[in-house]
Amino acid sequence: MEILMKIKGLVVDPISKMPIVVLEDPLSDQILPIWIGVFEANAIALSLEGIPTPRPMTHDLIKNFLDQLNITVEKIVVNDVRDNTFYANIHCRQNDIPYLIDSRPSDAIALALRVNVPIYVDEEVIKKAHGLKYEESLENSEKLKQWLESLNPEDLGKYKM
Prior knowledge:
The structure is a single chain. The protein is of the alpha+beta class. The protein has helices at residues 38-49, 58-68, 105-115, 123-130, 141-149; strands spanning 2-12, 19-24, 31-35, 72-82, 85-94, 97-103, 119-122. It has a single domain (2-149), classed as Bifunctional nuclease domain (Roll). The protein has a seven-stranded mixed β-sheet with strand order 3-2-1-7-4-5-6. The two termini are 24 Å apart. 30% of the residues are buried.
């Protein structure tokens, strides 16, 4: 079963200093943190803030290709987590032919924001993610989980939704 998620915000992991996109199920307040790269975080932040760029960024370029080829994006789904790595699919359609494109979740989310489609997470991914063993540098995962769950909207900076 796929669960519709919203972007709660972007934060920086206080230990690893890596960006985290925090997805939230608005019906249950359950969160799913996904560590992402700095460039992908920037692409997501620019889109969340509605900040135009003078030239197309990578995800804008992909959107332009899709538009020119009459390919519609229907949704993105974070569909798996293996060895602490999340996976996503971009669900597209062209002339009634469905296509499934493998993607990193950060790229799929950045594209979803640009084409205004829903972000889903497979229920099994959420279950697996609760048992994830985060990197040793993150101390213990329970402490990190408590920190993420205790975040207030103001902790999420200007990227809250």
